Amino acid sequence: MIRATAFKTLCAGFLEEGIRPLARNNAAHGVWTHPEGDWDLFGFSLEKLLHRCPMLGEIEHGDLICGMEAYTPDKAPTVGHSSQARGYYVLNGLNGQGLSLAGGLGDLVANWICDGIPEIDVANLDVGRFLELHANSQYLMERAPEIAAMTYSNMYHSHQFHTARNLRMSPIYHHLRDAGAVFGEIMGYERPLWFVQFPGPDRNALFQGQDALVGKPVWFDRLGSNPMIILSLK
């Protein structure tokens, strides 16, 4: 793994900025085509790889192979029985980790088909967890590059994405924001997670990233000091 910043993890030779135009250029024409390798784009990765493993520089001939991969909006595979066709099971969207996940997920689905129920809780992988919103092409073009760039990053329960946000908001969203709400996305909706005491007019009200594994979460002290907030909707 080669990480440039918190949101720029190298994935298969591309930073998030490199993945984004690749998706848009193909999708704009309504046809997905196999992209050609770009040595200039891959140059950043190659330089780092040669630094980490100098013997790669002794290879007489090498080909740059560029392919396409399937990613889901939440970086979790889609697994389970489809509600649209009886007896049809889905195992897809392995987010660039098919070789490592195929064995375990294949065994899970095989037993599921034979026994009629999964042997473990698979709610977070359920193929029915997505809405029509998640199939929107603009949404996917915003979110997919971020997911691809996180292939080798650990994502924890508190994680909030920084792309494709503010798509579904309640009628009182702006009142909550003015009151200091910090929002997290749940099923496409922006919902308040906690409130800051002195909200600035130009602040970013969206929580992005995730809590640290060591120490208090970022909201811990703020949540304890949050007063009861009453909104006037006049």
Topology:
Layout: H1 16-27, H2 39-52, E1 78-81, E2 89-92, H3 98-115, H4 137-149, H5 173-178, E3 181-186, E4 189-195, H6 220-225
Antiparallel strand pairs: 1-2, 3-4
- DSSP strand tally: 4
- Tally of domains: 3
The arrangement of helices and strands along the chain is HHEEHHHEEH
Instruction: Compute the average pLDDT.
Output: 79
Shape: globular
Domain FAD dependent oxidoreductase central: 115-170
Pfam families: DAO, FAO_M
Domain FAD dependent oxidoreductase: 30-112
Protein name: FAD dependent oxidoreductase domain-containing protein
Give a quick set of tags describing it.
single chain, 234 residues, alpha+beta, 3 domains, two-stranded antiparallel sheet, 4 strands
Describe the protein:
- This is FAD dependent oxidoreductase domain-containing protein.
- Residues 30-112 form the FAD dependent oxidoreductase domain.
- A hairpin with a 7-residue loop joins strand 1 and strand 2.
- The chain has 6 helices and 4 strands, in the order H-H-E-E-H-H-H-E-E-H.
- The strands form 2 sheets. A two-stranded antiparallel ribbon has the order 1-2. Strands 3-4 form a two-stranded antiparallel sheet.
- With 234 residues, it is an alpha+beta fold.
- Helix content is 29%, strand content 9%.
- The protein folds into 3 domains: 16-57, no CATH class; 78-150, no CATH class; 168-224, no CATH class.
- It has helices at residues 16-27, 39-52, 98-115, 137-149, 173-178, 220-225, and strands at residues 78-81, 89-92, 181-186, 189-195.
